Amino acid sequence: MISKLSVAGIAIILLAVALPLSAAQGVEALIEGLQIERENGTFVVSFSVKNCFNTKMEEAIKAGVPTTFNFFVTLYKTRALVWDKKIASRKFRHRVIYDNLKQDFRIWLQEKEKELRVADLEEAKRSMQLVERFPLIKGQKLEKGIYELAVKAELDPVKLPLRLEGILFFVSLWDFETDWYYRTIKVEP
Q1: Interacting residues of 95 by C-beta distance below 8 A, sequence separation 6+
Q2: Could you tell me which residues come within 8 angstroms of residue 57 by beta carbon, excluding any fewer than 6 positions away?
Q3: Can you tell me the distance from the alpha carbon of 147 to that of 74, in angstroms, rounded to the nearest whole number?
Q4: CB 153 within 8 A of CB 178
Q5: Which is nearest to 128 in space by CA: 174, 73, 181, 61?
């Protein structure tokens, strides 16, 4: 029969393991510098994601684990009496892989259909978290009115074989997902 002392000991050990892991997750990821501008008749979106890397994720990237960020950008036309109308919705990815042979990081920016190669982890992190001048929609398609831009970012979930998920439960602590961030814009002819 299991004694109360052994149950208490197991509970203390579990808390000692779980609390540092939750603290290691760090600060909540967030979107900063959200801007929408009209450029040559097209609305372009720029923003960056802050607090999206932790030390465990950096170690995994350096070990060659492919890491992917998903970005969601949606534009709604606000309406007073009915639900807002979705005008445009886009999803794109940034992916980083460390190449051990060449000792560099390959970053794929899907929205630009471009691959970058950098030697420094800090530069790779900057490229992963920055979205610059993403073309959302042609301005001619928008009628006069008030629109709301919504932006969100998340880490693509790390998939492990079923038997490893139970053992390596802390991998889910790498996950991040920002809240939706909004910007209101006024379109005039």
Answers
A1: 66, 67, 68, 69, 107, 108, 110
A2: 67, 155, 174
A3: 10
A4: yes
A5: 61
Reported as type and span, the H/E element at residue 150 is strand 145-155
**Nearest by Cα to 95 from 158, 161, 25, 180:** 158
- Is the pTM here over 0.85, yes or no? no
Number of H helices, E strands in the chain: 4, 9
Domain that holds residue 71: 29-187
Residue 19 in any domain: the answer is: no
- Quickly tell me which residue has 């000692």 as its tokens: 16
CATH code (residue 106): 2.60.40.10
87-146 pLDDT, tens digit each = 999 999 999 999 999 999 999 999 999 999 999 999 999 999 999 999 998 877 788 999
Residue 162 near residue 99, CB atoms below 8 Å: no
